[in-house]
Amino acid sequence: MAGTTGTRTTGAAGARETPPGGASGRPRRAAHTRSRARRGPRLHVAVFVAPFFVAFSLFFIAPICYALYESFFTLQSSGLGLTEPTIEFSGLANYATALSSPAFVGSLGRVLVFAAIEVPIMVVSALALALLLDSARARWRAFFRVSFFLPYGVPGVVASLLWGFLYVPQTSPLIDILSAVGLPHDFLGPGTILFSIANIATWQFAGYNMLVLIAGLQAIPQELYEAARVDGASELRIAWHVKIPMVRAPIILITVFTLIGTLQLFVEPLILKPLTTAINSDFTPNLAAYNQAFGQSNINLASAEATIIAIISFVVSFGFLRVVNRKGNRAW
Amino acid sequence: MVDRRRLSPATVVVLALLTAAAVYFLLPVAWVLIAATKSSADLFGTFGLWSPDPQLGANLGRLFGAEDGLFGRWILNSFLYAGVSALIATLLSAGAGYAMAKYPFRGRELLFNLVLAGVLVPATVLALPTYLIFSEVGLTGTFWSVLLPSIVSPFGVYLARIQAHAAIPDALLEAARLDGAGEYRIFFRIAVRVMSPALVTIFLFQFIGVWNNYFLPLVMLSDQRLYPVTLGLAQWNSQTFRDPAFFELTVTGAAVSALLLVLTMASLQRFWRAGLTAGSVKE
């Protein structure tokens, strides 16, 4: 990086701009003086960076610490309920409770299965759409791009409501058509519900992921294609051997974001729940945690469950990034 | 150049696949726009993609008249939550991203790694403990409880840093300093302008994220009049089993809210592509 030269130039410029001991330097004097001794007053850097990091600390870091803290306590009520319940430190007891609860463990297993369904569908369909639109044979590109991307603007709640209407026989033209030609059409049974939810998520985000990939495809130098064409490669071979390897980084990016999205599945099952018995109130880890907090009023257990969800998404996404980064150049 | 071989078999295949995909993506939207013109009886009694007796005006009248104009309030709330928090988030991201790209300072990479980790934190994981903290300080159930957590966009800082690094030459800043411009003046007069494509993208991302957010208002709010439109529609939908009249309200409301954001997005389409390139392509 150009770090060293940058330090010198901006430091010198800063010294010129802000006179030493400037009037506005009163708070944080100690830190201020120390850094000035080294490379001049840096108050403007703090002014640029601090507002974001104050908000980040309040609304990102503090809630995470608070959830961790709460997760180590348990509300103890005496056997007969005659005295006020007391809050006691209980170590990892909430984590043990969560991880030995069949409902919560079942919900974790369910989202992992869901991720195994949804991630390949999402990546393959976004990539297929991007390659089709990028192909030399495509026409009416603007129309297709807008229509694929349009569902991204439909809120998850509304998308789930819409597909919900398309999944029930009373209102669905799809079911009318499928049953007329004699095809199976149970979208809400225990065997199909995960696919029906995967469909809603794909519908919403495939077009957005496609745009990310198209941006990557457009950055490929044209000479690569020309060289391949001179060698007699077909469009399909160019797509497979030139285009896909060149968009490896954006593919990894959308894979990670899809993984994180699938692990925090919440809205779709919540909205579809009234339509089917295949979804219970512990269907996904987030639903289970929400149910613990607001249904059972057990915020300590809910905090432990939220922490487990966060740890799993970190482990999965960092683990995935490690694996793919080891194989070749870094994606990020 | 492309049209040299008109409608070769390969072209037909590509166009057929693209058309099939377009039908898939447009079908639910077409369904809801058609359903929004139907009476309650027709909604259940007629084929989904045909409206025999359109009565859109009457449905819209009922939608905006229901419960003292509650739906209009929800739309307004959504615009307020999304617009105000996206504006603040963009400003905070621009400042932090610009400073991280252009001023070396101690702890910079540590902070940036924190930001990257923040991108990966699931939003739903934050909502629950944020609710607990807000209930300690009496903020739950207020306008602020939805607005404040939404002003933070780690992804925005990431985009802003990349854009500032790529688009603002150090020579430009040096020239401005030699002309006597202060650091704040340089930021607001030069950096913000050069970064504007990325800033528009950050604004749109955050706007759509907040507009579509459901979990945060769900845990924070109890007063219907403060609901954003997502929470309101979900609430109406949950009442359809008690009173089927809510079906029609939910469907018409879903059509209006889907159309609103889709129209906004389509009109801003050219801004999207510039920003996406900044965010996804390796330098």
What do these coordinates show?
The complex is a heterodimer of chains A (332) and B (283). Chain A is an all-alpha fold. Chain A has helices at 3-17, 29-39, 43-71, 93-100, 102-134, 141-149, 156-167, 173-180, 193-218, 222-230, 235-246, 248-263, 267-272, 285-295, 299-327; strands at 73-76, 86-89. In chain A, strands 1-2 form a two-stranded antiparallel sheet. The model of chain A is unreliable at 1-40 (pLDDT under 50). Chain B is built from 15 helices and no strands. Chain B has two domains: 2-59, no CATH class; 66-280, MetI-like (MetI-like fold, Orthogonal Bundle), CATH 1.10.3720.10. With 283 residues, chain B is mostly helical. Chain B is 75% helix and 0% strand. At the A-B interface, helix 1, helix 3, helix 5, helix 6 and helix 7 of A face helix 1, helix 4, helix 5, helix 6 and helix 9 of B. Chain A: Belongs to the binding-protein-dependent transport system permease family. Chain A: Residues 1-21 have a biased composition (Low complexity). Chain A: This is Multiple sugar transport system permease protein. Chain A: InterPro entries: MetI-like, MetI-like_sf, UgpAE/MalFG_permease.
Q: Give the low-confidence spans of chain A.
A: 1-40
- Portion of residues in beta strands of chain B equals under 5%
Round the mean pLDDT of chain B to the nearest integer and report it.
Answer: 87
Strand order of the largest sheet of chain A: 1-2
Number of strands of chain A: 2
Q: Say which CATH homologous superfamily of the largest domain in chain B is assigned.
A: MetI-like
Instruction: Please give the share of residues in helix of chain A.
Output: over 70%
Rg of chain A? 27 Å
Q: State the secondary-structure class of chain A.
A: mainly alpha
- The CATH topology of the largest domain in chain A corresponds to MetI-like fold
Nearest-angstrom radius of gyration of chain B? 24 Å
Order of helices and strands of chain A: HHHEEHHHHHHHHHHHH
The poorly predicted ranges of chain B are: 276-283
What is the H/E string of chain B?
HHHHHHHHHHHHHHH
Identify the CATH class of the largest domain in chain B: Mainly Alpha
